[in-house]
Specification:
With about 130 residues, the chain is an all-alpha fold. The protein is built from 6 helices and no strands.
């Protein structure tokens, strides 16, 4: 892969769009996209595929293996797929969080019961000592 060609193609494909808006669409930090565009670092395979899909070009074009751009029929579809995946992940984590909160509630009840029991025992011991 030609690192210079890759970074140049990223800048060319971004065109007039702001780096911030593209980074946001690709779920990247602005600084990460900037590093890609400067050739300081390269994306992993999955992210390279996402970038190619986002711009509607082949990964071969993006990575400098060909000069032929092959655009996807629906270049904006990636965002919708990513949105759906994120929504599913959020729902899964919400359920997991609800399960954890329920567990925390039960543990808190048990802790409070033990503390109360301990305070009652302390009271009884103090009363017994004072007699």
């Amino acid at each position: 892969m030609d690192r210079n060609l890759f970074k140049n193609r990223l800048v060319e494909l971004r065109g007039e769009r702001s780096r911030h808006s593209v980074a946001k669409d690709l779920f990247l930090k602005d600084q990460t996209l900037e590093k890609y565009e400067k050739g300081e670092t390269l994306p992993n395979i999955e992210k390279a595929v996402e970038i190619a899909q986002y711009y509607g070009v082949s990964t071969d074009y993006l990575l400098g293996r060909t000069d032929i751009t092959v655009t996807c029929e629906y270049p904006g579809w990636f965002k919708e797929v990513r949105i759906k995946a994120l929504e599913e992940s959020i729902e899964k984590h919400k359920k997991s969080l609800a399960d954890h909160l329920s567990c925390i509630d039960k543990l808190t009840e048990e802790l409070n019961a033990l503390r109360w029991e301990g305070k009652e025992n302390d009271k009884q011991e103090n009363q017994a000592r004072s007699v």
